[in-house]
Amino acid sequence: MSEQFDVVVIGGGPGGYTAAIRAAQLGFKTACVDDWSRADGKPAPGGTCTNVGCIPSKALLQSSENFEHAGHSFADHGIGVSGLVIDVKKMLARKDKVVAQNNDGILYLFKKNKITFFHGFGSFAGKEGDLWKLAVAGSKPAELTAKHVIIATGSKPRALPGVTFDNVRVLDNDGALAIPEVPRKLGVVGAGVIGLEMGSVWRRLGADVIVLEALPAFLGVVDTAIAKEALKLFTRQGLVIQTGVQITDVKVGKDDVTVTYTDAAGKVENVTFDRLIVSIGRVPFTGGLGADAVGLELDERGFVAVDGECRTNLPNVWAIGDVVRGPMLAHKAEDEGVAVTERIAGQQGHVDFNTVPWVIYTSPEIAWVGKTEQQLKAEGVDYRAGSFPFTANGRARAMGETAGFVKILADRRTDRILGMHVIGPMASELISEGVVAMEFGAASEDLARICHAHPTLSEATKEAALAVDGRTLNL
Ligand SMILES: Cc1cc2nc3c(=O)[nH]c(=O)nc-3n(C[C@H](O)[C@H](O)[C@H](O)COP(=O)(O)OP(=O)(O)OC[C@H]3O[C@@H](n4cnc5c(N)ncnc54)[C@H](O)[C@@H]3O)c2cc1C
After folding, report:
1. Nearest residue to 206 via CA among 235, 222, 177, 182
2. Which of 227, 237, 276, 238 shows the shortest CA–CA distance to 256?
3. Is the sign of the CA dihedral 168, 170, 176, 179 positive or negative?
4. From the CB of 195, is ligand 1 less than 6 Å away?
5. Which of 266, 298, 327, 447 sits CB 3.0–4.6 Å from 465 for a disulfide?
């Protein structure tokens, strides 16, 4: 006997569980199916983000940053620390606790919003009139029918061709977040967000880290000035970053892994690492969903094909998050989930892809929204740029974190803000001001005329806005 729902969400990551909550708020009888399990077999909703992505990485980044501060910058404050050690086991246990708190939080939200949660693997099992039939496999198998289905099955790590993840020597994001001791020498393939964050964690704890990037430019998608500053700062911190490399062989031994590559100058290198993190991107996950059986269209890269409003080719079947086109970011998945359920309810759900912020949680952090300077140049847009360094910001000096700057790009004629780019302390928080400003179509002068509390890091944003018109006050 199948149970009937208005909306069934397959996948309980940030896209799926948020969609389920909004659907329930809108009065739909809602279910969410998710297969992620904790070590003891209990449900662990939250997807990649909660279990092996955003949350655990930020927990380890915080732990390792505390360790680095204690070892390097506490002395500047007159704080002496002797016998500093890192207990990796305890650090990982704390990270696991943070993850579990988030899993429990989502289970609580399901209950609070009267969402029926199925812990198991969901797949399409055909149609019954207007309703979609779904099967849940797991410890408690179930059959469901649904008027609307939202696919939010996320993504999985991309492997190097011919090199499988064993999560002992060759690590994906899951393995990178659970290395049981500080590696002496750590290789990271891919200088993207995940590679830089994970490389930073283990470098701060004492590993020699070499990051190997195939593309010729470091952080090519980031504003060039920010990427240049980042390369300088990360190199000074001790991360060895090589761009333009071509990996030709990876040999996995019992206790190590040897990578053969050609560097940008064409020289062949052989480097042996204790562990190798492979972070060369992620691919959409639709395995076992039954896409073929019901004729669900995938695009040539394996993403579920959707229109601008997340509609698939099947009636009343929607798809959101990492499994569809667009940036693989938790907040993009969440916003698509909300927008889709609002569309199901006949409302005007909307996601503005021009104002999706990006963050790299290194130290200093990097964050941006809107266009980069190189994009504006390529598009022939006439713009003005204003920058302000944290060295001239009182709060940053008091914190002892003066590396980096804020940069604002605005249309020369209308002064409308086209992009904001930050490298510096708490860039992840500062960027929201740029997002709000852009959503409201603000001009750089609007930001420059808004009263900002003193002393705050956000004064650097105001000063960058003033700099667009060449009239900073504190530089
Ligand atoms: C190391 C790392 C760090 C990251 N840091 C950030 C960050 O700081 N900020 C940020 O915005 N993004 C970050 N991301 C990206 C972010 O995790 C993803 O963009 C986000 O999780 C996508 O959400 P989603 O809901 O689309 O899919 P997912 O989070 O992948 O969730 C999909 C869920 O569906 C389940 N599932 C799949 N198929 C089925 C099925 N048939 N039946 C039942 N369940 C199924 C999966 O097991 C999973 O639980 C990070 C990613 C990684 C790997």
Report:
1. 182
2. 276
3. positive
4. no
5. 447
Nearest to 246 by CA among 210, 280, 209, 213: 213
Question: 187 CB under 6 A from ligand 1?
Answer: no
Beta bridge partners of 33: 10, 118
Q: Under a CB-based contact definition with an 8 Å cutoff, are residues 212 and 189 in contact?
A: yes
Reduced 3-state DSSP string for 111-138: HHCCCEEEECEEEEEEEECCEEEEEEEC
126-135, Cβ contacts within 8 angstroms, sequence gap of 24 or more = 126/293, 126/294, 127/294, 130/316, 131/4, 132/8, 132/294, 132/316, 132/317, 133/2, 134/8, 134/10, 134/33
What is the identity of the amino acid at 135?
Answer: A
Contact (CB, 8 A) for 146 and 6? yes
Instruction: Tell me whether residue 69 is one of the annotated catalytic residues.
Output: no
Per DSSP, what are the bridge partners of residue 284?
155
> pLDDT (tens digit, 0 to 9) for every residue of the chain, 475 residues total?
789 999 999 999 999 999 999 999 999 999 999 999 999 999 999 999 999 999 999 999 999 999 999 999 999 999 999 999 999 999 999 999 999 999 999 999 999 999 999 999 999 999 999 999 999 999 899 999 999 999 999 999 999 999 999 999 999 999 999 999 999 999 999 999 999 999 999 999 999 999 999 999 999 999 999 999 999 999 999 999 999 999 999 999 999 999 999 999 999 999 999 999 999 999 999 999 999 999 999 999 999 999 999 999 999 999 999 999 999 999 999 999 999 999 999 999 999 999 999 999 999 999 999 999 999 999 999 999 999 999 999 999 999 999 999 999 999 999 999 999 999 999 999 999 999 999 999 999 999 999 999 999 999 999 999 999 999 999 9
Q: Give the torsion sign (CA, 301, 132, 120, 327).
A: positive
Is the separation of the CB atoms in 172 and 163 below 8 Å? no
51 lines ligand 1 (CB under 6 A): no
